[in-house]
Amino acid sequence: TWSAVPAGPPDPILGVTEAFKADTDQRKINLGVGAYRDDAGKPYVLPSVKRAEQILSSSVLDKEYLPITGLPEFTKNAAKLAYGGESKPLVSNSIAVTQSISGTGALRIGGAFLARFYPHTKVIYLPVPSWGNHTPIFRDSGLEVKGYRYFDKKTVGLDFAGLKEDLQNAPEQSIVLLHACAHNPTGIDPTPEQWKEISDIVKDKKLFPFFDMAYQGFASGSTGRDAFAVRHFVSQGHQIALAQSFAKNMGLYGERVGAFSLITADPEEKARVDSQLKIVIRPMYSNPPLHGARIANTILSSQELYSQWEGEVKGMADRIISMRDKLYDTLVGLNTPGEWGHIKSQIGIFTGLTQPQTKALAERAHIYMTSDGRISMAGLNAKNIEYFAESVSKAVKG
Ligand code: PMP
Question: By alpha-carbon position, which residue is closest to atom 11 of ligand 1?
């Protein structure tokens, strides 16, 4: 029956881990997957998450199905975290929100909803480059994917002129995907001033902004600062769509905790959108998983746990920033040819190398990363940073 099924290519990101596992060298480093590691290189369960789990395990809770759109207190608190408690559409009960299977599921629900109901176009514009899963998510949701310029190879910075030109030349009312903070894979974000200009273009051209916020708090260490773009757009009256993930900022990767929300005109419109979100979700997976949403909600709804969590998010962000400083200093200290300032100015967990350098590192130094040269800074720590920097320096010198 399946003789005509062609073998598919391995996943470009998860495939790196396979190669890493097969390598027996002691010095090997995996910088492929974008999951946080502590300074001993180990997966990190946040103490606030452990405390929330203790609270949950000592409470009498059932394992009944959640509603189709998830745990209501969780979605309310997730929206508050993203939009801010004072947000006008939040206060006026005009935000339709549903729990999702982490950020990926949020993007997929949003893609499917837009493909079914957005009246103006089926085309979504993604930054070039973007997270590798964006294209298949939106294509499989029934949208057509196009790109807008984002990364400038020459300056290792934002191609702001190209970005503006492409958004200005897109047909009116096109859908535009924006990374809310810590752009993956480039680590380059617009400045607040640039976000304001982007917001103006989006308004002029009546574009529909779809924010992907997978790293709130994890980028700068402050959940408020990382939500700047989302909150600015909302303050300007944009009715945005938003995908949230709690994988990185709460370290809940495998629990699959996320939320998708849409700003609507008023509570009556919100009720209609809610009813259709349910109709989109019900045949996909019926209703979302319980445990992770309870953990996140326990943290978000307790003042004490919330402050503890904020400190822990900042701790993760700061450790990554300190690795960036150390990598920069070591590369410059070794007189490595090239301009390395971007390592310090980039935001979030990723930075990049060229493809030949990446290949040399895997073959000669047992250092693994995605073939596009994306490095997960979270895989670096006090023990391996020097070996890594020296290996990069050698690879660059050729
Ligand atoms: N968007 C971006 C930009 C990401 O980097 C990620 C995680 N790699 C996600 C969404 C979604 O991840 P998850 O489904 O694990 O929340």
Answer: 103
Do 123 and 236 have their domain in common?
yes
Could you tell me if the ipTM is greater than 0.95? yes
- Ligand 1 centroid vs 397 CA: distance in angstroms? 34
Residues with CB under 6 A from ligand 1: 34, 102-104, 131, 179, 184, 212, 214, 245, 247, 258
pLDDT tens, 2-33?
Answer: 999 999 987 777 778 888 898 999 999 998 87
205 is catalytic: no
Residue ranges making up the domain that contains 206: 72-301
Angstrom CA distances, 245 to 79, 149, 155, 258, 347, stand at: 12, 25, 30, 4, 17
CA-247 nearest atom, ligand 1: 16
Q: Which of 11, 33, 104 to mutate to test the pocket of ligand 1 (most atoms within 8 A of CB)?
A: 104
From the list 159, 166, 226, 248, the catalytic residue is: 248
Whichever domain contains 297, its CATH number is 3.40.640.10
| CA gap 83, 77 in Å, rounded | 10
Question: How many angstroms separate the first and last alpha carbons of the chain?
Answer: 50
pTM of the model: 0.95
Smallest CA separation from ligand 1 atom 13, residue: 103
Tell whether 125 and 269 lie within a shared domain: yes
* Beta strands per DSSP E along the chain: 29-30, 95-101, 123-128, 144-149, 151-152, 157-158, 175-179, 208-213, 241-245, 257-263, 350-352, 367-368, 374-376
What is the Cα–Cα distance from 31 to 248, expressed in whole angstroms? 16
